[in-house]
Amino acid sequence: MTDTAFQGRIGRTAAESEPWWPPEPRPASGAPNVVVVVFDDVGFAQWGCYGSTLATPRIDALAAAGLRFTNFHTTALCSPTRACMLTGRNHHAVGMRAISNFDTGFPNMRGAIPKSAATLAEVLRAQGYGTFMVGKWHLAPMHEAGPAGPFRNWPLGRGFDRFYGFLQGETDQFRPELVQDNHYVDAPARAEDGYHLTEDLIDRAIAYASDHVSAAPDRPFFTYLAFGACHAPHQAPDDYLARWRGKFDAGWDVMREHWFERQKAMGVVPADTVLPPPNPGVPAWSELTDNERRFAARLMEAFAAFLEHTDEHLGRYVDALREMGQLDNTLLVVMSDNGASQEGGRTGILDEMMYFNGMKQDVDQAVERLDLIGTADSHTNYPWGWAMCGNTPLKRYKQNTHAGGVRDPFVVHWPARVKDAGGIRRQFHHVVDIAPTVLEILGIEAPAEVDGVPQQPMHGTSMAYALADGAAGVPTRKGTQYFEMFGHRGLWHDGWKAVCFHALGADYDSETWELYHADADASESNDLAAAHPERLRALIALWWEEAARHGVLPLDDRRGAELFRSAQARGGSTARRDRWVLYPPVSRYNADVAPSTGARPFVLTADIELGAGRNGALVARGSSNGGFALYVRERRLVFDYNHFHAHTSVASDVELPSGPCTVGLRMAREGKSGTATLLLDGAEIGSVTIPAMAAMVSSTGMDVGRSTAPVCHDYAPPFEFEGRIRRVVFDIAPRTPKTERREALGTERRV
Fold first, then answer.
1. Strands across the sheet containing 183-185
2. Do 603 and 707 fall into the same domain?
């Protein structure tokens, strides 16, 4: 039986019958391609066309031929912003209060978009568009991100025909954890051979477009291209890193002033805009030690190199569209998902996992490894001062509802429609407005039902009017937009903004709100709360109304063990498993679905037969920045523990037999240290004390029978095991309140 009822006529013979074919979905003649490009953790000022001195000539060229929106807003965090962009609904209403790693048991935080909120891909595919997703997804619950899925919340389950990228919030740019469609794949080349993820993503985006245009030239396509850049780790090829040596030695105070003056000269902010004082906790550059300045400057160099490299390869994609004759009729949007990141802390950090483990960066030690910054052997994030500079002239950062967290660069390029080349648009808009804009441009009504599921109404307001010539001075059609992230709250209404910075655990009703006339105060510098108390009270009351209307409640600022227990409570969570039995060959397990061994004792055993082989990895978790590996080197069992480049290793005192045997590792924990014991058929064959161990060992996952991201330099990837592995077993000690607190630390910092 077919899905559509037959509308012809059936007789006894074909001659007596009338055939009928169901109509195929076909976009309107001349319908444009739609490409949405999302950068990660790029602040308001960091593209050259928004005031910085960073090298983004290809984005600047798109802005010069298109439009810059200077009053565009996001949610302050990655997964929520992406959910809003794809659905046209506010993030709480689609279960994405924060990052998709968590399901707290409330409708506002499920970590997955419900079927009542169809994505742009689902809507456009039903209209005949080809749909492609390339890059960062981070819209599936992480317990569903293993090789067995379930795949319902992966890109192909949410309307995309093809997917190539990564599922989690970040990945190593030189050794990424890649997924193609619904299965994990290896990168097509090695870091040692010049591989970088950004280049690979662009290659794939071009291939999807060229395949589609060649095979179906009469059908437009929708591409969602989401870079890992410029989220940590900040990693770029060596020649890009070298270009920025010494360029930030003057420090963030000087750079911030310089960028601010450029913004005023460009018209990115009004000439009378005030530059606020530095954010709380940000020291003056002159107050830093020499080593702190050297470290901070080098971290910013890595960010600049990462951004320049990405911009250049985005340009390669634009060039490919032009060569295919597609660029003129492509609605191309380039944006960032939130403000610049505060996760590097006061000093910046050589490895972001140190931040997630609550460890402070020893800058005097870090400067001894300056040359690692930006390479495959680093996982860096810059300090608050550079993030503040990146958000110039706005207050605070990613995660906050002040403008530094939620006001972001937004460029629209569409030669066939946008004629006000280089124009600036100051209308207030929000990421939730993108989907309604696309649908209006395409002449598509938001469907009331998709696949039999009634749809939530869209919450956004179309921006299509602002693309027209002469629209620069037209008032915004947006009336109200709420903000909420981790208890930080805000509300924009008719040109005014009320905003509240939430202190963890503080009483929501007694916290201080600020009031800004946003239309006249671009940097939120003049707090008018005392001058207009009635207006502020009205906006706060309206915030609560909007919160109730859009599923924001309950407000939830839980951290630590309480949040950890809530997030792991659902039955499908892999973190609750204490025993794992793996039968190689198995796909790579990313960090969110790999056995959770970080804070607990465990025993790892592998039934192997080495035969004539001499080398190879048995189990490897992490990368050269941190992790552990159990492997065979010249027929001896070896264990290496990498605690942020501090290695502790032990090799067996006997060779392994050629025939079947069971090798293993027993890991005992004593506080933050431990003892690793090598085993052969149950007998101890080596032991070592590990002076420091991490609860959150790495954001890079686990290989069995190989090591695609080397934990140590004793071997080169992929270091495939030369014998046979019959099975691998993890037996992990049950959680205790103490180990739960340690695991919760990483969870808390990760949100």
1. 183-185, 178-180, 162-166, 130-136, 221-226, 33-39, 330-336, 410-413, 67-69, 423-425
2. yes
Residue 323 identity: E
Indicate whether 586 and 551 sit together in one domain.
Answer: no
8 A C-beta contact, residue 183 and residue 147: yes
Domain count, the chain: 3
Integer Cα distance of 710 and 596 in angstroms: 19
pLDDT tens, position by position, 232-272: 999 999 999 999 999 999 999 999 999 999 999 999 999 99
Regarding whether 416 and 547 lie in a shared domain, the answer is no
Inform me whether the pLDDT recorded for 481 exceeds 90. yes
The amino acid at residue 103 is: D
Domain hosting residue 614, numbered range: 579-733
Q: Which residues are catalytic?
A: 78, 138
Tell me, yes or no, whether 89 lies in a domain.
yes
Nearest to 280 by CA among 381, 360, 397: 397
Specify the amino acid at residue 560. G
CATH code for the domain in which residue 540 is found: 3.30.1120.10
Average pLDDT, the chain: 95
Q: Residue 690 falls within a domain, yes or no? A: yes
pLDDT band of residue 351 (cuts 50, 70, 90) is confident
Helix-strand-coil split of the chain, %, nearest 5: 25, 25, 50
CA distance 240 to 187: 21
